[in-house]
Amino acid sequence: MRTFDLAPLYRSTVGFDRLFSMLDGGSEATPGYPPYNIERTGDNQYRVTVAVAGFGENDLSIEAKENTLTIKGSKQTHSEQNGEVLYQGIAARAFERVFQLADYVQVKNAALENGLLHVELVREIPEAKKARQIPIGNGGNAKPQVVDTKAAA
What we know:
Elements: H1 7-11, E1 13-14, H2 17-23, E2 36-42, E3 45-51, E4 60-65, E5 68-73, E6 95-101, E7 105-113, E8 116-123, H3 149-152
Parallel strand pairs: 1-6
Antiparallel strand pairs: 2-3, 3-8, 4-5, 5-6, 7-8
């Protein structure tokens, strides 16, 4: 019997939570650098929080293109240190995190607060794509509507 680990997909996608709730069966693998959270803050609202301690606003870039959210960080080396570093436990290496977004998920804003980068997302489904109620008419009075495809072309 084959088992599939969906943890990598679950960690890097936003807006597919209903699908993954049905298919979820794998255990979460250890996340890479930097650590992050994906939260649902409302019915169609999400927040991606990335721990970016030591990075400033100028060191980070956020790009949303099609259905992909990319967060990059590159620390500028500073020669302002007054002394020799004996142990460096605070990671300041460059990183790139890519998240696959579901259809109609858009980035609303981003904020850097206390070493955490918060990226707010919202799923805005167009009116034409939303489910709608179809009234059931009386079969005797309803006339079928015929569309002439040759005249439209």
